[in-house]
Design a protein that fits this description.
Nucleotidyltransferase, domain 5; five-stranded mixed beta sheet; 321 residues; alpha/beta
């Protein structure tokens, strides 16, 4: 028996084929597969590619599949992704869940025998951002995950946009001088701020390029730049606020549970992870904050295995109608 677990994010997509013991035996990797950012056709192409790579050399089809992708617990997006998976040949035993859920399951074991999701919170800062948690009663809540136009505060893209605005204001004399200007220009391999216009608006990878500025902002912060420091401080505040909302709504403040930090910004900007960890000590004093040390796709593998063995109970949202 084999199962397939897929993590489709804004920057990268990972598919893992695993055996009945959860050991990974096949792997596929490609670029981002976010429905809002890339569109339905591109998402289908990326998923088809990573699945082919993961299944290469294995004749049998997986008995269960779990796909974690941002926004799929909203009705419209979920139906689009289900249609894609059906076209790719996966009609039965296919779980399509929010990518935050698979990240949580990657770090918090499922209940033995009953397939329940364990108590905990995951706070993700990658291309986008979201906080997601499950309490001891099996109820879920989320904060963030609204996408770049409506939210994603504290994400790499959110940080990158503020850096670009700071550079524009510096160039115009409308804002303070900032170390971000030479660092951002070097990041895009241009010599003048006005050249950033074509880099951002004319290139297909504009959003990904903006999101990748997060570590550049952290570098400027480390060099003492006041503007960059304020951007990063505000990012830590916003991420903490998202986690605090989830903890409060699930009534978990006084309980013991893990808080997992995940995503490219949490891995690549140590200051941000440390600042958020320190703030979370006030939000949930008995929680244990740590980094997610494995691929979120491992959580998708675990959910697919539970589905193959009799079914998984996806935690219902606390405020669901």
């Amino acid at each position: 028996m084999h199962v397939l677990g897929i993590d489709a994010g804004g920057t990268k997509t990972v598919a893992l084929l695993a055996d009945a013991d959860g050991q990974v035996v096949g792997e596929g990797r490609a670029g981002g597969a976010n429905l809002q950012a890339h569109g339905e056709l591109e998402v289908e192409k990326v998923l088809h590619h990573v699945i082919d790579l993961a299944l290469d050399g294995y004749g049998a089809s997986p008995v269960a599949v779990c796909l974690g992708l941002a926004g799929v617990d909203r009705d419209g997006d979920g139906e689009v992704i289900r249609g894609i998976m059906r076209r790719l040949g996966f009609r039965e035993r296919t779980l399509i869940v929010n990518d935050a859920l698979i990240a949580l399951v990657a770090g918090v074991p499922l209940g033995q025998g009953d397939g329940t999701v364990g108590q905990g919170v995951v706070l993700i800062s990658g291309t986008g951002s979201i906080a997601y948690g499950v309490n001891s009663r099996g109820q879920a809540a989320r904060a963030g995950g609204w996408g770049s136009s409506l939210g994603d505060e504290g994400s790499g893209y959110w940080i990158g946009r503020r850096a670009l605005k700071a550079v524009a204001r510096d160039a115009d004399g409308r804002g303070p001088r900032t170390r971000l200007t030479p660092l951002v220009l070097a990041h895009f391999s241009v010599s003048r701020p006005e050249q950033l216009v074509s880099e951002i608006y004319d290139h297909v990878q504009g959003k990904r390029a903006i999101a990748s500025l997060g570590q550049t902002v952290d570098q400027a912060r480390a060099e003492g730049d006041v503007v960059a420091t304020e951007i990063m401080r505000k990012a830590a505040d916003e991420l903490t606020l998202a986690a605090a909302s989830v903890v409060a709504r699930l009534e978990m403040r006084g309980e013991q549970f893990p808080i997992l930090l995940s995503g490219g910004m949490m891995r690549g900007a140590q200051w941000l992870a440390t600042a958020v960890t320190n703030r979370l000590a006030e939000v949930a004093p008995r929680s244990a904050v740590g980094s997610l040390e494995v691929e979120p796709a491992i959580g998708a593998v675990r959910l697919a295995l539970a589905e193959a063995r009799g079914g998984i109970r996806i935690p219902p949202y606390l405020d669901a109608n």
